[in-house]
Amino acid sequence: MEVVFIKLKSVLADVKELAREVGKYQLNKFNKKINVTEKTSYLDLVSEVDKNSEEMIIKWINNHFPGHNILAEESGTKETQSEYTWVIDPLDGTTNYIHGFPLFSISIALMRDEEPILGVIYVPYMEEFYSAIKDKGAYLNGQKIEVADKKTLKESLLVTGFPYDLNEDEYNNISIFNHLLYKTRGIRRLGSAAYDLALVASGKLDGFWELKLNPWDIKAGVIIVKEAGGKVLETNFHGHHLIIAGPNIITDNIFKEIKDVHNR
Ligand code: IPD
Ligand code: CA
Ligand code: CA
Questions:
Q1: What is the pLDDT of residues 141-154, one digit of tens each?
Q2: 130-180 pLDDT, tens per residue?
Q3: Rounded to the nearest 5 degrees, what angle is found at the Cα of 101, between the Cα atoms of 95 and 106?
């Protein structure tokens, strides 16, 4: 196996520049007439902006790191022998974007084997740039960030999302949502899992959970939350991927409540 030493700090600077360029393109097209098609259902959409954004990112990766693997939402995978993989969601929050609701983000992670070592989440409309390098902390627009210090669910404001197959499968998060609503100060549904994780990392929200997400939705967010001092739990829950993130105690408490709901 190829072992390559990558200078993550300089890679991060380049990835930020790339994300800024993609964000500029997305803002340019925002609220304009664009081509939209359905993927799996009327809930699951993709636009020309998703595809073009991804193309810009993949072109950059192929230019700078032609030997690396790529896992990208819209165009699938490129497999090489490298230990490094780029995991990309070119536009997280497509439904928001298409409806002219300005919360959407670009999520780019670099993994070494199974572990994210660099993550960038850029939220163009908010001009918020979240980033982390393994063991080097997490940052928002150059300022160090930390997860909140909440200790109980009662004082916590959480955020979640719902899967696109919610009409077809009972594991659609609605019973968990109903249960947790009574245990917390509130639950938000913003429509971009990457941004949800970034908001938890910066302590504006206290905890996040969601079922059935894909690596491209979360890998950048996972390292950003961890580097911000939070705990991320990824597990198989009744055959489905479940992610929970937040301050240590909040993550554990959310998991306890979720288990209660499905064991009743
Ligand atoms: C979606 C968003 C949303 C989450 C969905 C995701 P997309 O990603 O992250 O917040 O609830 O499960 O699929 O389709 O906008 O990239
Ligand atoms: Ca996504
Ligand atoms: Ca997407």
A1: 999 999 999 999 99
A2: 999 999 999 999 999 999 999 999 999 999 999 888 888 888 999 999 999
A3: 65
Binding pocket residue ranges, ligand 1, CB within 6 Å: 89, 92-95, 161-163, 191-193, 210, 213, 217
Q: What's the chain's average pLDDT?
A: 95
Nearest ligand 1 atom to alpha carbon 161: 11
CA distances from 226 to 20, 200, 222, 234 (A): 24, 10, 6, 12
How remote is the CA of residue 258 from the centroid of ligand 2, in Å? 22
Give domain 2-144's CATH architecture: 2-Layer Sandwich (3.30)
Which residues fall inside 5 Å of ion ligand 3, going by CB? Answer: 73, 89, 91-92
pLDDT for 1: 43
Average pLDDT of the residues in 183-195: 98
User: Strand runs (DSSP E) across 113-226, as ranges?
Assistant: 115-123, 128-133, 138-140, 143-144, 157-160, 186-188, 207-211
**In this predicted structure, what is the pLDDT of residue 2?**
45
153-262: CATH topology is D-Maltodextrin-Binding Protein; domain 2 (3.40.190)
The mean per-residue pLDDT over the stretch 84-111 comes to 98
C-alpha of residue 255 to centroid of ligand 2, in Å: 22
Closest ligand (CA of 243): 1
